[in-house]
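Appendix B, Record 12. Input sequence as logged:
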Amino acid sequence: MIRPSRHNPRYWEFQGKPVMLLGGSVEDNIFQIDQLEEHLDLLQSVGGNYIRCTMSSRDDGDEWPFARDGASGLFDLKKFNNNYWEKFRRLLDLTAEREIIVQIEVWDRFDFSREPWLQNPFNPTRNINYTVEESGLEAEYPNHPGSNQQPFFYSIPACQNNQVLLSFQKDFVQQLLSITFQYDHVLYCMDNETSGTEKWGAFWADFIHEAARRKNKEIYLTEMWDQWDVTHAMHDATFDHPDRYGFADISQNNQISGEDHWQNMQWRRESIADVPRPLNMVKIYGADGNKFGHSNDDAIDRFWRGLLGGMASLRFHRPPSGLGLSPLAQQNLKIARYILSEVDFLQCKPDVDHAVFTMREEDGAYLSQYGENTFVVYFPRKTTVDLGILYVGNAIWFNLLNEDVIDESNAIIHQLEPLTPPAEGHWLALIRMVTTVER
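Logged structural output:
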């Protein structure tokens, strides 16, 4: 099963073996896509073993989880749509065969506002089960879901105690769990980018934990907050409750660039030193031409800062907001998997404050040490750094933008000068020392 590593709980283990989760995919509600098996095969072929799965239905052609009433053509929330759930079950079967970990998001707030809400089965004008008056839900919510005007996310007893709506919400979650509890490679996230009350996520986390206890099932849950600054108090609702949330997803940190991206994740990582847990990044933003202004360069930066920074999972977000499983994403997944075959990531020691460097420009390079004699250094651009040591050993350079996975310049060298990448672009250096002398 998937659980925090018993040797280093900052990382995951699966079937008793430590595992680094790496991935990328073309879509978030991936169980709804065509050619699913081929996409998973491609992911596996480049070293990927991790996907995101929102239980979402807002894209054209998607199935909704509930069946339609034959007489009215409206949805019936008491009847499930077998096509939706069989697609989901097939995803879990295919990923189990390939040992690909699936991180589910139970509620995706973007399905419950604006255009998607007009087609959503929970909309009182789209089902036969309740009216606007009975449900407390309006026919339209035209504003961004971040405005928190949708009562759907306040139905729980600690908020509005809307039992009419809550009973159908519980049915949906119980149906989900009746399937997922049959598998051992599933992680659970309550929401996509929520900014509402922490009571909502806590209710569903406790609800799922209780269902798991009844089945004697060990599971791990988290919440995903919309606040980009992961040092913000909003994230404390996850970090302060390790018994409820066995890991944290800090994907929104990937809306931030440069030194702040590194320092904020390191601040959170250090804040849980007494009760370490995995920190996941199921969404790495960045792709040229997207409407948010995050580029390919941003995606590569965030991926490698995350890997060297001690994150437990890294997945390129779907296009157009991320690289998905594009050739560039594939290239970096291959290189990452090669690096992980050469180092023991359970011994990862991020150079949190860049203390190993005696010369470094801001956002010029990032370093992680593995054991006594191995360093991995990431360069977002061509710049020069000094590690403050003399060494004899192997240095392998990786061009992260090049189709060639490895630059085989790994001759024995004497490092007497500062370290500089071979050319412009994004570079990675794997340095394995034979002897070292402090300067």
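Residues 109 and 145 are 6 Å apart (CA to CA).
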